[in-house]
Design goal:
Blueprint lengths: L3 H21 L1 H8 L4 H22 L6 H24 L6 H31 L1
Helix pairs in contact: 1-3, 1-5, 2-3, 4-5
Keywords: Membrane, Transmembrane, Transmembrane helix
């Protein structure tokens, strides 16, 4: 069974790994996306690294902070909405692979948000 804490840890680890890949290999990833701008990938990578630290630190709290969990969920939902907007409008003129990767990550983030919402509801019932 996935507890809220476990989902937060999974979110932190996958966000952190993605962030590190973007920050360490921006040229390679920019090439996959058909972009010559490395700075955007570095910036997103650094954001994800900071996000991962926040999510992980919140997963270790006892008791969990409902307000922080709601903030994390809101950021995840915002990520998904922005990703949909980027894909729907073909913003930035990326490659098909770039849009596919954005969609795959958005699907994963939506799953994290869903599981966190479900976990928060169960957590609220217990407390």
């Amino acid at each position: 069974m996935l507890t809220l804490k476990n989902v937060l840890i999974i979110n932190a680890l996958t966000s952190g790994a993605t962030g590190l890949l973007l920050a360490i290999f921006p040229s390679y990833i920019a090439e996959l996306f058909g972009s010559s701008q490395n700075i955007a990938f570095i910036a997103v990578g650094l954001f994800l690294a900071v996000f991962a630290v926040i999510v992980f630190s919140q997963s270790r709290r006892n008791p969990l902070s409902k307000s922080w969990i709601k903030f994390i969920i809101a950021l995840d939902i915002l990520w998904v909405l922005e990703s949909v907007m980027i894909i729907a409008t073909q913003m930035f003129g990326l490659t098909s692979l770039g849009y596919l990767l954005i969609g795959a990550v958005a699907f994963w983030v939506a799953l994290m948000a869903f599981l966190q919402i479900r976990g928060l509801k169960e957590f609220s019932l217990i407390r």
